[in-house]
Design a protein that fits this description.
Elements: H1 7-14, H2 18-26, E1 34-35, E2 41-42, H3 45-59, H4 64-73, H5 76-114, H6 122-159, H7 165-189, E3 191-193, E4 200-201, H8 205-210, E5 213-214, E6 217-221, E7 228-234
Antiparallel strand pairs: 1-2, 3-4, 3-7, 5-6, 6-7
Helix pairs in contact: 1-2, 5-6, 6-7
Length: 237
């Protein structure tokens, strides 16, 4: 004799609510194998196995229609297609959420820097986000350039210096040109925020060359409030 489970028993076995089991019945997703004379739903072991599959598909984010399609078709290929589609949806959701997070971070950083919300439209937000993304890539390029320059100096000193004065002079001149090019690049792609008045400003080539750098930024004089302090680097306008 087959054993029957009530809606409540089946729900408890699958760790869901009785109302969920009843909802699946209403939606035609899991019909009871038998209904008692008193109108109570009764489910078999095969119903229990099918409900576990439904719970699995729901945990993967499949819709009720997609689950119904998978149960009715039952082929591996159709299930594979549904899973691939769901994976693509999740990738798109992640992309959208990452974009939203970048925009939130861009606005928050602007507020922290200037003390006010300057973005007034979606277009302005898009422009701000693009500037931040470009600046992030620029920072990576700057770090790579500095590391390459340091490596050039170390290897050059070991290889070129023993070759004689003439070669050494050429090496030093080339190192100086590369240093000036690096400073020029750094000046061009960076602006600074004064911590006292929140003014954003750019600096000249010589100022960038001779101003000290540190973990807190660059030690500069703000052109607006004339305060000398450690100013954080940021993207130029």
């Amino acid at each position: 004799m087959s054993k029957y489970y009530s809606s409540g028993e089946l729900a408890k076995m699958c760790k869901i609510t009785t109302r969920t089991v009843q909802f699946y019945d209403k939606e035609g997703l899991l019909k009871p194998s038998k209904v008692s004379e008193g109108g109570r739903r009764q489910y078999t072991e095969s119903d229990y196995i099918e409900l576990k599959c439904i719970c699995l598909y729901r945990s993967l984010g499949l819709s009720l229609n997609e689950i119904k399609q998978a149960l009715e078709n039952g082929s591996i290929e159709s299930i594979k297609v549904l899973i691939n589609e769901q994976s693509s949806k999740i990738d798109n959701d992640i992309f959208q959420l990452n974009q939203r997070k970048e925009r939130l971070c861009a606005i928050l950083e602007q507020i922290n820097q200037s003390g006010k919300l300057c973005v007034k439209s979606i277009d302005e937000l898009e422009s701000l986000t693009k500037k931040k993304q470009k600046y992030k890539k620029t920072n990576v390029m700057t770090v790579l350039w500095i590391l390459s320059y340091c490596l050039f100096l170390m290897l050059g000193s070991l290889i070129v210096m023993p070759m004689g004065d003439f070669i050494s002079v050429i090496f030093i001149a080339l190192a100086l040109v590369l240093l000036l090019a690096l400073v020029y690049w750094h000046k061009k792609v960076n602006a600074y925020i004064c911590p006292e008045c929140n003014n954003k400003f750019s600096i000249g080539f010589l100022n960038d060359l001779f101003s000290p750098n540190g973990l807190k930024g660059k030690y500069l004089k703000c052109p607006l409030c004339n305060t000398r302090s450690w100013c954080n680097e940021t993207y130029p306008d």
